[in-house]
Amino acid sequence: MNKNNDEERQITVIWRRLKRNRLAVVGLITILLIILIAIFGSIIAPYDPMKLNFRSINEGISTSHLLGTDQVGRDIFSRILHGARFTLLIAFSAVLIGLFIGSLIGMIGGYYGGKVDLLVVFLTDILLAFPGLLLAIAIVAAIGAGMTGVILASGFSSIPQFIRITRGVVLLEKEKDYVMAAHGIGESNVAIMWRYILPNCIPPIVIITTLRMAVVILITAGLSFLGLGVPPPLPEWGAMLSDGRGYLVTAPHLTIFPGLAIMILVLAFNLFGDGLRDALDPRMKL
Length: 286
What we know:
The protein is mainly alpha-helical. It has helices spanning 2-20, 22-44, 76-112, 114-128, 132-143, 147-173, 177-184, 189-225, 237-244, 253-280. The model has no long low-confidence stretch (mean pLDDT 85).
């Protein structure tokens, strides 16, 4: 009972800290709104995002088309609403891949140490030597373009960040008294990692997950812009940017609005991630 009360008090304190950071709250609200748009985009959208209309090519902002139309007459507002679903689906899936594999490898390397840890550090350093987008391009080139390729490429490019943060926490925690006590009562290594060390890894993992979402969204947009991402005519934001780059002078709205959508979502995750980091830091004062 006391343990539950302590956990509730900790959650309350974290929420109070987070609420004091107005930018973090704005970021959280923006993320929730975009998630709702991704879920209900097909209901909100006034037009079919795939439907061609050659009578309305490259139209500007109007009452019938709030954000104009693209080079084949498709409604940009409807495509952005639908595109939120693809962008968030790819980002969440990729980050989950990096989170699961990276955290597992980082925990094993940090806990067992020795040659295992040296191998983990060596492989992590090799992956970190490549810029994220370049590593993702190499992975897509190896496994093929498309939504699955983008998810796997963005996910594998996120693995080294999760390895590094998890390994660092495990190296600190495994030397503490509660871990020594668990060894003394005969707990197995798996039980110690799962029951004792992992809960202390959750706060930094949550923070890096939130911040990594912003990076993965940019990587996904970059791959789609280069023609290696979601295939046309699916309305993914990076692909919409790529489609509009040939009309920057005659129809700049083709790139402005998808670019703004990407910028707003990335900024929201960064603001929320920074605020969450401060809220989870026990050294921060209310």
